[in-house]
Design brief:
By secondary structure, the protein is an alpha+beta fold. It has one domain: 60s Ribosomal Protein L30, Chain: A (2-Layer Sandwich), CATH 3.30.1330.30. 57% of the residues lie in helices and 14% in strands. The protein is built from five helices and four strands. Strands 1-4-2-3 form a four-stranded mixed beta sheet, with helices on both faces. Strand 2, helix 3 and strand 3 form a beta-alpha-beta unit. The longest helix has 14 residues.
């Protein structure tokens, strides 16, 4: 299943050390300009979602709304998380392509 491939690849990116997860870590990385692609869980609060998407627009990072908090956390081997940031250009390109394959 293509959705599984996207989550599996996200887990590989995490193990490669190219993922920042959780609100505080993502906000810190965004402020430093380290986030290339931000993945926001579809089931996070509308207020948080709008805030994160606005910040991405301001700092020039790409953002996509995908999946659910539990699924994102599970892909990383972590508790549920609302936001995941990819810090590598090439890996961000590949994960974005995989997410587009599942119609994000």
């Amino acid at each position: 299943m293509k959705t599984d491939n996207a989550y599996r690849f996200l887990g590989l990116i995490y193990r490669a050390g190219k993922v920042v997860w959780g609100y505080q870590a993502v906000m810190k990385a965004l402020s430093k300009g380290n986030i290339i692609l931000l993945i926001v869980a579809g089931d996070c609060s509308p207020r948080l979602k709008n805030k994160l998407l606005a910040i991405c627009r301001q700092c020039g990072s790409q953002a996509v709304v995908y999946g659910h908090k539990v699924e994102l956390g599970t892909a990383l081997g972590k508790p549920p998380c609302a936001v995941v940031g990819i810090t590598d250009y090439e890996l961000a390109r590949v994960i974005r392509q995989k997410l587009q394959e599942v119609d994000v």
